[in-house]
UniProtKB/TrEMBL annotation:
CDD domains: PBP2_NikA_DppA_OppA_like. It comes from Brevibacterium mcbrellneri ATCC 49030. Residues 14-273 form the Solute-binding protein family domain. It holds the Pfam family SBP_bac_5. InterPro entries: SBP_5, SBP_5_dom. PANTHER family: ABC TRANSPORTER SUBSTRATE-BINDING PROTEIN, PERIPLASMIC BINDING COMPONENT OF ABC TRANSPORTER. GO terms for biological process: peptide transport. GO terms for molecular function: peptide transmembrane transporter activity. This is ABC transporter, substrate-binding protein, family 5.
């Protein structure tokens, strides 16, 4: 998170690890139980003075390693809310039939997804190689196959709904063109061996989308592309943090604040906390710094230049803009959704 105006107690500064296990907050809920990789329990904060008060006494967040199991539990009424629908349920809109009228929501999301190229790996040093791989991905075909056409092919590094949105700023480098991709790959020195694309298997659809992307690259670029599976996001992130990735890997971001800067700074500024691919461009860093003191018109022009730079450098290639799929049991009310397309947990409640 990159949150502002979030006060922290003295205990946070004394011992980060201990605070992480037993945090002190000032919101409508308070943490009362944390069982690692099992569940988190929040209870209503009776001392909360804000307007958006909790409508339930307790929330229990169950952790799953298999998204399909979470979905099945909601359909069966064992769990009340889910925001991860497996691909086999998305296909043919089966999930909407399974849940029934009044128990699901499909809406735009601020989630952006793509694939990162590790800049520290010699295979990806030449930007033409990265551009070639990007041009070999048929985003529309992947989106249609995996999400029933509900997601939108990504052609920018910041999604719709976060203004100013600049559609298709990536240009031809985010549209499939097999011949142009092969030519670029040759100009960049080619690609030897197998191209791997890593994904975490504990996220809905990650396996299916990576397989579809590899199929597209195999067909359009003529190189061997193979999905590389990690059981959990944490395990994949450990490898990414250690700079031990030897191939591409799935990336994603959801807005921390309602500005393209939330996306354009986190992944791409030199040495930024989430810039795991080792991308560095002094000109890009300069634009990211100068934009903070610009007016809206100047900012929009700078956002455009920043994304045009990313199109040339291609440290991360866009894949799609996400869609929010929510399902709930017949025991609870429909939740409201925040501007950043997450459940507003102060609005969840039992039916009367």
């Amino acid at each position: 998170m990159h949150s502002t105006y979030m006060p922290l107690p003295e205990s946070f500064f004394k011992d980060h690890e201990a605070y992480g296990k037993k945090p002190i907050g000032n919101g409508p809920f308070k943490l009362t139980e944390y069982k690692q990789e099992q569940q988190i329990v929040l209870e209503k904060n009776a001392d909360y003075q804000g307007e958006a008060k909790a409508h339930v006494d307790k929330l229990t967040f169950k952790m799953y390693t298999e998204p399909g199991a979470a979905y099945a539990d909601v359909v069966a009424g064992n769990v009340d809310y889910v925001d991860a629908i497996p691909p086999d349920a998305v296909a043919g809109k089966k999930w909407q039939t399974d849940l029934g009228e009044g128990r699901w929501q499909l809406s735009p999301s601020t989630l952006w997804n793509g694939y990162s190229f590790p800049q520290y790996d010699e295979k990806f040093k030449d930007p033409k190689v990265r551009q070639a791989i990007s041009m070999a991905i048929d985003r529309q075909a992947v989106t249609d196959a995996v999400t029933n056409g509900e997601n939108t092919p990504g052609t920018a590094w910041s999604p719709p709904g976060i203004e100013p949105f600049q559609d298709d700023i990536c240009g031809d480098k985010c549209h499939v063109d097999a011949e142009a991709a092969k030519k670029l790959l040759e100009e960049g020195g080619g690609f030897k061996g197998t191209l791997t694309i890593a994904f975490n298997n504990d996220g809905p659809g990650n396996k299916e989308v990576t397989e579809a992307v590899c199929t597209s690259i195999n067909e359009n670029l003529g190189i061997d592309c193979q999905p590389q599976s990690f059981p959990t996001f944490a395990e994949m992130l450990d490898k990414i943090d250690a700079k031990e990735m030897t191939g591409m890997y799935r990336s994603g971001w959801q807005a921390d604040f309602p500005s393209p800067l939330s996306y354009l700074t986190a992944y791409y500024i030199t040495n930024a906390g989430s810039n795991k691919s080792d991308y560095s461009n002094p000109e890009y860093d300069k634009m990211a710094s100068e934009i903070l003191s610009q007016d809206e018109a100047e900012q929009e022009a700078t956002f455009k230049k920043m994304q045009e730079t990313l199109a040339e450098d291609m440290p991360v290639t866009p894949l799609w803009y996400g869609t929010l799929r929510l399902g709930w049991s017949d025991k609870v009310v429909a939740p409201q959704v925040t501007w950043k397309s997450t459940i507003d947990f102060t609005t969840v409640g039992l039916k009367k």
